[in-house]
Design goal:
The chain has a six-stranded mixed beta sheet with strand order 2-5-4-6-8-7, with helices on both faces. Strands 1-3 form a two-stranded antiparallel sheet. With about 525 residues, the chain is mainly α. It has 20 helices and eight strands.
């Protein structure tokens, strides 16, 4: 029989400090959390501008024209939520991204507690905590100025709060969960799902062992009201800010991404063509094929990212055997809702990173259930093979899992960071050769601004007529096209099409037969 030895209090401090040590090792290795992709550039730039007194504003249209204003600069975070930028701003100027470091350590400590809560032993706590440190594909992202660690902590604690509220029938836990759901929503729009799950978890009855009846409807309504009120209070300042700007309280334009027929359509200009009718006109066959592709892709993401390649079947075993645990009710409902939404509703954003980001809230529970699933499997085999030493097998498999993930995480981290360090080299080269007052149209305006300080807009999903309209609207002076251009501009990039308002002034590359590495810069000449 398993000996239940819960971790001591000082061990919680130990896992927190161990995560800090891992961050220090990363920093010594030359990784300081420098942004290396669009999301991170966006949040970092907003944080820097905030500390410089520019307010929460954007000098570009970075991601999409959905919800964008018609001039630069414009109010920030009209499409994405603001909390990551506010948190990152606290560490601007520091050689170490300490806000992200603390959030990562907080997530590892949360996972440590979750392992102890579900498994009841020090082994469970330590294995789960270490798996957040050596978390495979996630490892390189924890220190990025992004929402990974932030949403992971707030989302996981919100799920834990509603679980404790159901298990203990205490409205205060639901209130804590609601406040944390509000913070999670301020980090990512997906946090709205947490509020919906909270309402369901608080209203759904929990049968008791003695009478078979749970809390009354009145008590459950109190739980739901406390949670949703706390959520609303946290969200209220941001909603009022948006209303004051004449924008919707929540960026409802994001719902338009449900009707994408390809990911490139996220940069349609104008964006008002993204409607249900536009989507239905695509045809049933294309719609089903796109959702099947999203399902196949997201299953792979679940296995490789959330399931750490080898842990996922044991996670499912552990969840199935504990499916009636009130503490886990919100977890599996959130997981189901998130995966369904990112597969069948927001298929293209989900495949392109939405699911990867929002799954961080599940990792403490997935890893805990995975370790418990290993125990369940060992117990099943030991019952049929008397020669097996079940306790020894559990220790062996737990240790092997941590070692395997440590090796995998280090290798993935090294490869990812190497790519990020060189990602901005072409932009820095271009910035030195453009006028200081240039306004650029480029694939990644946030990244270009980070490396050059030049404002701009994202390359639209349209032909030269669309480029002309966007350039006239935002005062674009230069158009930059590379391998990441949108499909309608391929002929312009390859020299098969000309535009009377564009003059090619710079070609980087062009010394081989493969144009994929070329960068073409056009000067805009509009009356």
């Amino acid at each position: 029989m398993r000996s239940r030895q819960p971790p001591r209090r000082r061990e919680y401090a130990a896992i927190f400090l161990l995560t800090l040590a891992a961050a220090c090792v990363m920093t010594v290795a030359g990784y300081t959390g420098q942004p290396g992709y669009t999301d991170a550039y966006y949040y970092h730039n907003a944080a820097v501008r905030l500390t410089q007194g520019a307010g929460l504003t954007d000098p570009y249209v970075a991601i999409t024209y959905i919800g964008a204003r018609g001039a630069l600069p414009q109010p920030g975070h009209l499409y994405w939520m603001p909390l990551a930028s506010l948190v990152v701003a606290m560490g601007v100027g520091s050689p170490v991204p300490w806000p992200m470091v603390l959030l990562w350590a907080g997530l590892a400590t949360t996972a440590f507690w979750c392992g102890a809560r579900l498994g009841g032993t020090r082994r469970h706590a330590w294995v789960v905590g270490l798996l957040v440190i050596f978390s495979g594909f996630y490892t390189a992202f924890w220190l990025q100025p992004d929402t990974f660690a932030l949403y992971g902590v707030t989302g996981a604690l919100s799920l834990a709060g509603m679980g404790l509220g159901r298990a203990r029938r205490d409205w205060r836990w639901f209130a804590c969960s609601g406040a944390l759901a509000g913070l999670a929503h301020l980090a990512r729009a997906d946090g709205l799902l947490l509020a919906a799950v909270l309402a369901l978890a608080s209203l759904w009855p929990v049968p008791t062992q003695d009478s078979g009846h749970g809390a009354s409807w009145r008590e459950r309504a109190l739980h739901a009201g406390a949670g949703l009120l706390a959520y609303a209070l946290v969200m209220a300042p941001w909603l009022l800010r948006n209303v004051a700007l004449g924008a919707p309280p929540l960026p409802a334009g994001g719902l338009a991404t449900m009707w994408l027929r390809s990911y490139e359509e996220i940069v349609n200009y104008p964006p008002d063509g993204l409607t249900l009718q536009h989507f239905l006109d695509w045809g049933v066959g294309n719609i089903l094929a796109s959702r099947w592709g999203a399902l196949a892709t997201n299953v792979q993401h679940f296995i490789a990212e959330q399931g750490l390649l080898v842990l996922w079947p044991f996670t499912l075993i552990g969840l199935w055997k504990r499916r009636n645990d009130p503490f886990l009710s919100g977890v599996w409902v959130y997981a189901l809702g998130l995966h369904l939404a990112m597969t069948f509703a927001f298929a293209y954003p989900g495949m392109r990173g939405g699911l990867f980001h929002s799954s961080t809230a599940l990792l403490p529970f997935w890893f805990s259930l995975g370790v418990l699933g290993i125990d369940d499997a060992v117990r099943w085999v030991a019952a049929r093979r008397r020669a097996w030493n079940a306790a020894q097998a559990r220790m062996l498999f737990s240790g092997a899992l941590v070692v395997m993930m440590a090796v995998l995480s280090v290798s993935l981290f090294a490869a990812r960071v190497a790519d990020w360090k060189t990602a901005g080299t072409p932009y820095a080269t271009l910035g030195a050769r453009l006028p200081g007052d240039a306004v650029v149209m480029v694939n990644d305006p946030a990244g270009f601004y980070y490396h050059t300080g030049l404002p701009g807009v994202v390359v639209p999903n349209g032909g030269v007529a669309t480029v002309r309209a966007v350039a006239a609207q935002y005062g674009v002076t230069h158009v930059i096209l590379d391998v990441n251009r949108t499909p309608p501009l391929s002929n312009l990039f390859l020299g098969r099409e000309e535009a009377d308002f564009l003059t090619e002034v710079l070609l980087i590359g062009g010394d081989d037969d493969d144009p994929a590495n070329d960068i073409r810069v056009f000067e805009v000449n509009l009356p």
